[in-house]
Design a protein that fits this description.
Elements lengths: L62 H14 L4 H10 L4 H9 L18 H29 L2 H6 L2 H12 L5 E4 L15 E5 L13 E12 L6 E7 L13 E7 L5 E5 L10 E12 L3 E2 L5 H37 L1 E2 L2 E2 L4 H29 L6 H24 L11 H7 L2 H4 L4 H12 L7
Parallel strand pairs: 1-4
Antiparallel strand pairs: 2-3, 3-7, 4-5, 5-8, 6-7, 9-10
The structure holds flavin-adenine dinucleotide.
């Protein structure tokens, strides 16, 4: 057994993961001047022959999506499964990968050109993160860059020009890493009840305008904050007007993008099931001094601003999920073809083959929903049913694909050598975060079907 390559029994399967054609290397900055000529269209099928490169000929990708796929696939080919298994084992943030993605400007894929971005859409960003996860990087790879791609959407939309320059430029260049602080231990999904607070201290002139030295004092707790061990910055949501002082609970919350100052914030890592390379943390802070200049948009209007990025995040999480699903399926098909028991490949048994075939169909169906949601988002559609449905369907399809991949490997599915156990542990994440399956069903029941609010 071991991890040897397959023995050529896949003549009937064409190039899902073929080697890329010989073409010039492409960076995100490429989009500023030109685009790649379209490749010939092929059917979407899986070749388990090659694990180094991902298939580039999906028939439905636009030219710019295909260019993204090709360039990201090329970067990811330098970070094989063994890199991610080691990062997991050593519990080490994938710095080299983050730098490789930042190096070619990819962190600015959706950001304005004047701050160093490429102004592409969520549809291209979804291809980017799907490709990262699908390369075998799974959530460790996707989460290492995820927040930096879409997370500063509220700054892009509501920040001043000075803030955009100060905040977006170093993020896009990979000089700053940012984390995202919304969830709190005592309130969970009931975000509007969050208990952390910020109190303004005015030391500038009395005219009412912002003075130098004006700041907020933040006190409270956050939980599950990804990358806080390595991030220099945090986008944090906190209450500036108590619930009793507002007419609607969505009012009175404010958003800050500021230094994650370790002398003022106690950060404790949470031991967890998977994705050990990318940390998750509890944060505790008491009178943490945050400059008033780091408030994004208007005080008390933070919830609306954070909501703006939510649909985009759901689309990206969904794309990452199907990426893992395809990675698991690729490995399962590879194994099912080469593992012989009872005198034939196990994949010749319909009991092994059919669940994998079903997973391909489920992943493709979720993929269509993701790219429909992304297209609508890029066209300015603001409602959340497609983004939520895409996240739900993708997470479930990916979970099933990973589970089936583990089972198709038999005992070796439980061994680290074949990587599917790592995918399986990580694929739980999109079922839980950033919003649970139940809350998505609540949303669809209420907003789409017009049923009474159930909670
Ligand atoms: C690996 C990982 C990384 C994360 N990264 C971040 C991050 O970077 N930043 C951040 O802010 N957060 C992050 N989160 C937090 C994540 O968004 C939350 O865990 C998630 O939103 C669920 O909240 P909770 O854990 O408090 O669940 P709870 O609110 O305690 O809910 C528990 C369960 O009860 C169900 N439930 C609750 N209320 C209802 C209801 N009314 N109807 C039906 N079911 C209900 C939920 O669906 C869920 O299944 C991360 C979480 C994980 C696991």
């Amino acid at each position: 057994m071991g991890s040897k390559r397959p023995n050529g029994s896949f003549a009937t399967l064409s190039q899902y993961f073929t080697r890329p054609r010989s073409r010039p290397s492409i960076s995100c900055n490429h989009f500023k001047s030109t685009t790649t000529p379209p490749l010939p269209r092929h059917t979407r099928s899986i070749s388990v022959r090659a694990t180094e490169y991902l298939q580039l000929h999906d028939p439905d990708l636009t030219d710019s999506q295909r260019t993204v796929r090709e360039a990201i696939s090329k970067i990811c080919s330098k970070f094989p499964d063994s890199y991610w298994a080691t990062a997991e084992k050593e519990h080490r943030f994938p710095v080299e990968f983050h730098q490789a993605i930042a190096g070619d400007g990819w962190l600015g894929i959706c950001m304005p050109a004047e701050y160093g971005g490429s102004e592409l859409g969520i549809a291209e960003a979804a291809v980017m993160v799907q490709t990262i996860a699908e390369s075998g990087a799974a959530y460790a790879g996707a989460s290492a860059v995820h927040m930096n791609i879409f997370g500063l959407e509220p700054v892009r939309k509501f920040g001043t020009d000075e803030q955009k320059r100060r905040m977006l430029v170093p993020l896009i260049a990979g000089e700053h890493r940012a984390c995202f602080g919304v969830t709190e231990p005592n309130t969970g999904l009931d975000t509007l009840k969050l208990q952390s607070k910020a109190v303004k201290v005015k030391v500038g002139d009395e005219s009412g305008s912002e003075g130098e030295g004006d700041h907020y004092l933040l006190s409270g707790q956050k939980i599950w904050i990804s990358t806080a061990q390595v991030a220099e910055k945090i986008l944090i949501l906190t209450r500036t007007t108590p619930l009793e002082g507002v007419t609607k609970p969505s009012q009175g919350l404010s958003l800050f993008y500021t230094d994650l100052d370790r002398s003022q914030v106690q950060i404790t890592e949470i031991p967890k099931m998977g994705r050990a390379a990318v940390d998750s943390n509890s944060l505790f802070f008491d009178d943490w001094k945050v400059p008033a200049a780091d408030l994004i948009g208007q005080e008390n209007h933070g919830f609306k601003m954070i909501m703006h990025g939510m649909n985009a995040e759901r689309i990206l999480i969904a794309a990452e999920a199907i990426g893992i699903g395809y990675a698991a399926l690729r490995r399962a098909a590879l194994y099912a073809g080469e593992r012989h028991v009872f005198g034939r490949p196990i994949g010749q048994n319909q009991g092994v083959q059919h669940p994998l075939a079903t997973s391909w169909m489920e992943l493709e169906a979720a993929r269509l929903m993701i790219y429909q949601a992304a297209r609508l988002y890029d066209e300015g559609y603001e409602a959340g049913e497609y983004a939520n449905a895409a996240k739900f369907l993708a997470a479930e399809a990916a979970y099933k694909a990973c589970e089936r991949a583990v089972l198709a490997h038999g005992g070796m599915g439980y061994a680290k050598e074949y990587h599917v156990e790592r995918y399986f542990r990580e694929v739980m994440i999109p079922r839980i975060a950033p919003v649970s399956r139940e809350m998505i069903m609540n949303y669809i029941g209420q907003r789409v079907l017009g049923l009474p609010k159930s909670y």
